[in-house]
Design a protein that fits this description.
The complex is a heterotrimer.
Chain A lengths: L1 H18 L1 H21 L3 H32 L3 H7 L4 H31 L6 H25 L6 H12 L1 H14 L5 H30 L3
Chain B lengths: L37 H5 L14 H28 L16 H24 L6 H33 L7 H20 L5 H32 L17 H49 L16
Chain C lengths: L1 H37 L15
The chains are: A mainly alpha, B mainly alpha, C mainly alpha.
Chain lengths: 223, 309, 53
């Protein structure tokens, strides 16, 4: 299973490396989103700094949707999906591989967005490790649910509009937890609260990764 | 020349299969008959079109009875709730919504959602897989959406005079809203055209994921509210002293609304069955009609040739 | 009290209109099913052999 996962992840990342979609399209989109938030919230730096955690995570969610769409559409050309199934790749491995591919892209995007938030909104981070851990855990949760719903909606022509609608309510806990943790890690927050929310993220991740490993095989058959 | 119409076996050499779809026989004729004889004409019903599902008389009666009870119960609840029962000591007349709101909430959040989740799992489980569970889940979700909207609206209307706000981001309200969105996503996914089995699996997975997610959402929002410094924790379940006629009316409200749900579920299920039948048979029938247009226009037929697949 | 009346009215109206829509849908579908199934009966001519598609 792990070998298959590595294979699939490597493939996806190599495709990304050559086409650079995430870098050239999704990342700028994220930055544009940050700018739009700034315009929406007004020039008061206090408001922006206070809202920075939430805005960061909302921008991350938007980028997740795009990254997942991309991950799914990569398979839809040339019957690649059938090819994957025929190749005998372990479905759980396929799930983990796609998850890893999406997660890797998201981590890079988050680093970029975090820098943007610090620079553009004047957010002051006091406890960096909390930020890093929350991003990693949140990414896993987002990538897991994204891959699951991406597989469910693969091959549907309405996928572009349906996927966000299906996915975003499910990842609401990640948004809640991520925002809370960031707030705890900022100047004026209580880090202890942050660690409590980390536990929620862990539970979320464990649940959805387990679901993916167990059910990705049957889900593939619905595509 | 007889054919084995049940297996759609290829015709003998003297007859020609007339629709290219060789999978099922389009026309079956009693053996050794000439097709123009009137008694045999009835047998010319295209059998690619399976007979429509009939609703047994008993289920029709059950539905009527439940519907009547639901109607009576609801009217009684309204009458008792609005006029007969006394106003509350604390909330005054505002308490009267307690006969409606918890009832629709129970139906939407537990009955409908629970049924949809269980049915979906039963569909996914290989040993109990049957389209019945899928259709039941779909019916439960659609009716559940209606009750969910009722829950949110009645809760909001109750909240305005009681707490002063139309909405509060507490765990219960927020989870109900998230559930509504998840249900709507389920319905949107079902509208995508697909084979019944494929659609059923997809929907079942979505329902399963929703079932997994709702407890997590509820818990997170609950935490979110209690851990937030300085949050006013609204208590939606204001402790009411319910006794006497109020208690009975409350119970009646629950029962009546449950019956309404059951009745709607039955009718909606039937609608689903009919829709699926139409979807799968319209094409076959259209093909058959199109083929029959291609025959000799003046009705003359090469005598005993029967086109059988 | 107006809120209470409004609450009752809204809930009952929503339930009522949905119920009506269900019954109407079922009736419309049943008629369509009858049409589709009944139309299958007597074809005026037998099918011509070699008609192909």
């Amino acid at each position: 299973m792990w070998r298959d996962a590595a294979l699939v992840a490597g493939k996806d990342l190599r495709i990304e490396g050559r086409s650079r979609v995430a870098l050239s399209q999704v990342a700028p989109f994220g930055v544009v989103a940050l700018a739009l938030f700034a315009f929406a919230l007004g020039p008061d730096r206090d408001v922006m700094a206070k809202g920075a955690p939430g805005l960061f995570w909302v921008a991350v969610l938007f980028c997740t949707v795009l990254a997942v769409q991309r991950s799914v559409s990569v398979e839809s050309a040339d019957g690649a999906r059938d090819g994957l199934r025929l190749s005998g790749i372990d479905p759980s491995g396929l799930f983990l591989g796609k998850l890893a591919g999406v997660a890797a892209q998201l981590v890079v995007l988050e680093a970029l967005l975090a820098a943007g938030v610090v620079l553009l909104y004047g957010a002051r981070i006091e406890v960096p490790w909390l930020i890093v851990v929350s991003c990693l855990l949140g990414t896993i949760g987002l990538a897991a649910t994204g891959t699951l719903y991406g597989a469910l909606s693969a091959g549907l022509r309405v996928r572009e509009t349906l996927l966000p609608f299906l996915l975003l309510p499910i990842v609401a806990p990640v948004l809640l937890a991520g925002t809370r943790i960031w707030q705890a890690a900022m100047a004026g927050g209580t880090p202890a609260t942050g660690t409590q929310w980390l536990r929620l993220l862990v539970v979320f991740d464990v649940v959805y990764v387990a679901v993916g490993i167990l059910l990705f095989g049957p889900i593939q058959e619905t595509a | 020349m007889t054919t084995d119409s049940s297996t759609g076996a290829p015709p003998t050499t003297e007859v020609t299969a007339f629709p290219p779809t060789g999978a099922h026989p389009i026309v079956e004729a009693p053996p050794n008959s000439t097709v123009t004889s009137p008694p045999a004409a009835a047998a010319l019903r295209p059998t690619g079109v399976t007979p429509p599902p009939a609703q047994s008389a008993r289920s029709r009666t059950t539905e009527r009875v439940i519907g009547a009870l639901a109607l009576v119960g609801t009217v009684a609840t309204v009458w008792l709730g609005l006029w007969v029962t006394p106003p509350d000591a604390v909330q005054g007349d505002l308490v009267r919504l307690v006969y409606i709101h918890p009832g629709v909430a129970w139906v939407a959040l537990y009955l409908a959602f629970g049924l949809a989740a269980v049915s979906s799992v039963l569909y996914l489980w290989p040993r109990t897989r049957a389209l019945f569970w899928d259709r039941l889940a779909a019916a439960a979700v659609e009716v559940g959406v209606v009750f969910n909207v009722c829950t949110l609206v009645s809760g909001s209307i109750w909240g305005k005079p009681t707490w002063g706000v139309w909405w509060a981001w507490d765990a219960r309200l927020t989870s109900t809203a998230v559930l509504l969105v998840l249900f709507l996503g389920y319905l949107a996914l079902r509208r995508v055209p697909a084979e019944p089995e494929v659609r059923a699996r997809r929907s079942a997975f979505v329902a399963l994921f929703a079932a997994i997610d709702i407890p997590i959402v509820h818990f997170s929002v609950d935490w979110w509210n209690t851990l937030h410094q300085g949050a006013t924790v609204l208590n939606p379940g204001l402790t009411l002293k319910i006794h006497g006629s109020m208690a009975w009316t409350l119970l009646l409200g629950f029962v009546a609304l449950t019956l309404v749900f059951v009745w709607m579920l039955l009718v909606r299920y039937r609608v689903g069955v009919l829709e699926d039948w139409l979807a799968s048979n319209e094409l076959d029938l259209a093909l058959a009609e199109r083929q029959s247009e291609g025959t000799d226009p003046d009705g003359a037929s090469p005598s005993s040739r029967v086109g059988v697949a | 009290m107006r809120y209470i009346i409004a609450g009752y009215v809204v809930v009952l109206a929503v339930l009522f209109f949905y119920a009506v829509s269900l019954v109407w849908r079922r009736r419309r579908l049943a008629r369509a099913v009858a049409r589709v199934a009944g139309a299958g009966a007597p074809l005026p001519t037998p099918v011509a052999p070699g008609g192909g598609s």
